[in-house]
Amino acid sequence: MSDQPRPRASLRTAVVWEVLKDALDRQAETVGRDALDVLDTGGGTGNFAVPAARLGHRVTVVDPSPNALFALERRAAEAGVADRVRGVQGDILGLFDVVDRDGFDAVLCHGVLEYVDEPAAGVRNAVAALRPSGALSLLAAGLGGAVLSRALAGHFTEARQALTDPAGRWGEGDPVPRRFTAEQLSGLVSGAGLEIAAVHGVRVFADLVPGALVDTEPGALEALLKLEAAVAEQSAFHSVAAQLHVLGEKRR
């Protein structure tokens, strides 16, 4: 795993980062430029924006939280990439109030669709921000992972509620407003005019393994990272992943 920290927190981002890094490398080769223009919608404090800037890309982060954007600015400065990271306050449904259409080689939409009233409109905006041959990286909460985690915790009624609820919520106390299946996310991406390049299950096992085991057992973190990478593209595991990642590509 390159350009990504190795603590236990990396279990949440490692698979997506490797897929994203490869996609950015291919995109740079396609357009014939080493430095891409990348838009990170809902990018927060820069978990993906700062590593992308370290690769030499110019990254614009659009996020509704001024506190997150302040933290992003500080993080980019500490990483020595402040000149390649720009933070703008806004959201995906009002995206073109703050950025231009057709202005980016790649768009990241990670952890956003769960919280917007119109996910399809959000995806359409993300796609409209892409240049010809651009790529979209879409990450959202998975329905199956929530059902599995509630069941394993002994909350069987909540697990069934999540399974049958139109938004995939397990109850009034659920902090996530909406979850998706792989088919639903792929449908949103293809419906917005992109070709599906890949679908990945993210955090298939990571949220289910006891933290003490990963933190104390020699080699456990590395082994779990490799296992997550090995199952990410296997469709049999998409239905139990905590998150789902779809990579879409815009054709000329």
Report a brief summary of the structure:
The protein has 252 residues and is an alpha/beta fold.
List the helices and strands and how they pair.
Elements: H1 14-31, E1 37-41, H2 49-54, E2 58-63, H3 66-78, E3 85-89, E4 104-110, H4 119-128, E5 130-141, H5 143-152, H6 156-164, H7 182-191, E6 195-202, H8 211-216, H9 220-231, E7 243-249
Helix pairs in contact: 5-6
| pLDDT averaged over residues | 92
**Which outline best applies?**
globular
Q: State which percent range the strand residues make up.
A: 15-25%
Distance between the termini: 32 Å
The helical percent reads 25-40%
Give the low-confidence spans.
1-6
Q: Number of DSSP helices?
A: 9
The main pleated sheet reads as:
7 strands, mixed
Strand order of the largest sheet: 3-2-1-4-5-7-6
Radius of gyration: 18 Å
Secondary-structure-derived class: alpha/beta
Count of individual beta strands? 7
Q: How do the SSEs run, as a string of H and E? A: HEHEHEEHEHHHEHHE
Characterize the structure shown:
This protein is of the alpha/beta class. The protein is built from 9 helices and 7 strands. It has a 7-stranded mixed beta sheet with strand order 3-2-1-4-5-7-6, sandwiched between helices. Strand 4, helix 4 (119-128) and strand 5 (130-141) form a beta-alpha-beta unit. Helix 5 runs antiparallel to helix 6 (156-164). The longest helix has 18 residues, at 14-31. The chain is globular, with a radius of gyration of 18 Å. It starts with 13 loop residues before the first helix and ends with a strand.
